[in-house]
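Hi L., both proteins are below.
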Amino acid sequence: MVSRNTGSAEGGRPWRAAVAVTAPAGVMLALGLWGLDRGGMWRDEAVTFQVARRSVPQIWRLLHGVDAVHGLYYLLLHAVLAVRPGEVVLRLPSVGAAVATAGLVAALGVRLARPRVGLWAGLLYATTPLVGHYAQEGRSYALVAAGAAAATLLLVRALQGRSWWAYGVTLALTCLLHELAVLLVPAHAVTLLYARVGRRVWVRWGAACGATGLVLLPLALVSSGQSGQVAWLPRPGPGSAQRLLHAFLGPGGPVFWTCLFLALLALPGPRRLTLAAVALPWTAVPPLTLLAVSQFRPMYDDRYVLYALAGAPLLVAAGASRLLGAASSRTPSPKARPGATRRPALRVLAPLAGALAVVLAFAHHLPLHRQDRALRVRPDTQAAVSALAARELRAGDAVVFLPAIGRRAKAAYPEGFRGVRDVALAAPGPVSGTLYGRERGAAELRRRLLALDRLWVFAEPYALRSPWYPRNPVERVKLTVVTEDFVPGEPRREFVRDGVTLRLYTRRPPAPACSPAVTCSPAPPPARPRPARR
């Protein structure tokens, strides 16, 4: 086993450790609640909201076809929203998870270094703009980050003689929240290698990871059949790594370069269980592994490795502590006798100076925090789309969504679409076990559309303004009938709001009849959309 670090001069006063852990958690709570009610959900939050309000059997049925990777999170949110469905309540679990993560990061710093390191690291984590972004989002990523931090702390405790059961259970639950959290396993393996642990530790750690793999196997098998959901992700390039580095350490300017310098300063160290030995693999191995794998099978997105961010503030805080220690050791004490130094004052002033530096960094990032809490920053706010529908549509109006994914606003905010006729919908999502409902067959939908004289179309940006040619026959019928048999209404009524185009169409007027006195030339057929060249 690895002995716990007890060499800190500050380690003998428990209240310092308590303050170091609770202060970052309090700051994260305040920042998480600040501007939490933005007045609308963006598309991914809307999916969470409408799925979590279904019954458990309906959620279970959905997961067999789509979104299995988020299944545990949906079930958790089902219990939360059963108390009171709403946008703020939807985001509260993410706020709570971010608060817990800030405290756990601080606890790691206290355990492996000293209270001031934990305080600085926790405050840095809480004030990082990317953390604040996902702390206010109704998705699973903040909860995964909390699980990863808890698993890492429990790994350290296990290496110091505590039970491995807690580590294994926490790791398994974290991976069930999002299966890409399994990349935490190689990060922990690098920590064990660096710390030169014995064979017995490897066996126990391997047993915990093996049990996690067995628990995760059914989810991996189901989600592998749903890999088309991430087919839109591009192959990441050098810019992806650069953006992630700036997201972890700061968008740019003096804050970024200072944090980078301090993080690098923390890296050299002895081959044992140190803070750097835990934090560096944690922050580097998951994103680098996912970036490498995504060169062959693209599945990289910054949010999938949000849980790796927590290692960065630990490195920065460790580097700052090392720099401070080096500076204080070189400062002679006036009228010194052995042991009579300025250390008592340093113990008080050093944490406060580090906290002040974090406050200055937060002030530098304050415009980003304010911007992130504005509704317009999140893409395609579904509340705005529903409000547009409520303003322009009337009861009995015929509506078609092109493609079917545009129905997400109706699923999340149905009051804006009350009384309208969804021409293509055969069965809603909860009944059909799908996200956006099951649509009618192509032939039946064509008959229904051709029987209309007036039609409202909710279209994604690419559906009407590019050579989009869908593979789905139902989507092809929608596009073909709308472009060939309908024309934009007069006066033209078109509205664009949050990435969605709402346009009124009317039936194309019949061609003028020919007579002996009038020579009619055949009109050219309307242009059909062609498949885009690859």
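That was the first. Here is the second:
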Amino acid sequence: MSSIYAFFGRSVALLALVLQGACAELPQHVDRPVSTAIAAPGGTALEALIQQRRRADGARFESGFLLLGGPPAAYGSRLALIEGAQKTLDLQYYTIHADASTARLLRGIRAAAERGVRVRILLDDFHTTGRDTMVLALAFVPNVEMRLFNPLAGNRDSSLARMINSIGDASRIQQRMHNKLFLADNVLGVTGGRNLGDAYFGNAPKGNFIDVDILAAGPIVRDLSRSFDSYWNNERAYPVQSLLKPQELQEIRERARKADQELTDEAARAQNAPPGPPPSTTADGEQKAGAAPTPAQLARAWDEKPLDLRTARFVWAPAVMLADQPGKIPADRGPEKTKAPGLVVSQPGDAAESSPRAAALQVSSDIAAGSETVVEGLLQLIAQARSDLLIISPYFVPGPDMKLAFATAKRRGVRIRVLTNSLASNDAPVAHVGYARHREELLRIGVELYELRSEQATVGNAFGSTGSGDVGASRSMLHSKVLVMDGRLLVVGSMNLDLRSQLQNTEIALLVRSGELSRAASAQIERGMREGSWRVELDKKKRSLVWRAPEGSNLQDTGTEPDASLTLRLLLRLFGPLAPDQLL
């Protein structure tokens, strides 16, 4: 989550009037060879497998889906796609961290390239600094192309230095490509909330994200690939080689070589490690910033097994993709300097969902025409809710139209429940300010609010068995982006219900019409609300908020932000009014 960086970046931009020195600039006349997904995925082992599974299930629909709630399934699905790909791998992410979990994935991608798989990796440029620059070394592997979207000019030693360098163009700092895609042979793909890194796969020592992805199979993946291609071939996407100087290239190659050796040496020492904290941790066991992965993290990553696609239980259902166009982020110069937003809603015919066509057409009719962004499309969807809305949004900062949509739905008798981060569980506390200032109004509208309890016995306590043991047990952070409507429609994507996702970042989501998937997601969400979250209510007598303790927690209700220190609460109360909603 880059909210705190974005807010700081906008604040730093105020110094532009006095800091008008020379700044690094992005290259011009960049060569961007156009490439697209394979037109027909036939002839690959993955395609044959999906067709066999569909026939065996007697499926009416051509696309299948599998919810990936826990780290083992989320990590294993990506391993399976890497190992099963024969023609192409396309990855689109907001951030890829250079750590233990990603190291295994990237080694697998390198091996796929060596066996002839064409690999394209599109990465938002904001976090390609510090240790994470080592990920860029993949750009120099044969059969691998890597591009950076909406890059910031300047040195990659730190995010702060690059923000200061971009001080004259604050919008470049603010607007990010937040999409997440992992596609194999244009027939299988993963999308959802997860970036690539230890904290997204239950393997971080300090804290881990609770997240949800969805594995899609069949023709709907072609829509995801078309969205990827629109970003890949956009003028905002710069080949890595066009952005790095020869000296930087050599440094990255050398760091990557040393990192590979470091990983090998750490793994070899893991069996004979002495008692006490490993060398990459502090005395209290927390991982040092920018440190190499610990032996335990490496062991956990390499112990993970690929998802067995032969036995995975797909739910076959009609679906559509919602995707922001890359033009939502202005081009660097020329006539496209103004935004060119527009929501791409895949059509049932595009996804070859013609069996039966009538039901598939009904899915796309749930999205009202004229929406310009993914979030606005979801607001149109909310307008069609009849009885129930279950929402997970880790960063929840509702604008006026969002509150109006909720109020209108409540007048129709729709029950609305929202699960978001508490102050203690939020990895970007400044984002909590935007939510907190609307909390009482939402409660008066009738929205039921739940905030994740940060201190869990295990990461999985909020959603059943979704964690991976005792790793990161000290802190759980919500990162899932899910909406369930009327027990029949499920939305999983990269978007938050906030103004940043609505107005600035690009997002993507899948909307699936399936009672089975909706019921499964609802059961997990409702359990998380009951047993792993604080319910926020209005105490009408005291005219204040009260947090009701989770069921079975043996905790007491409280009248202040639970599990958050007095210092943190005071700091946010002091500086919160200075942070506009659209920057959070």
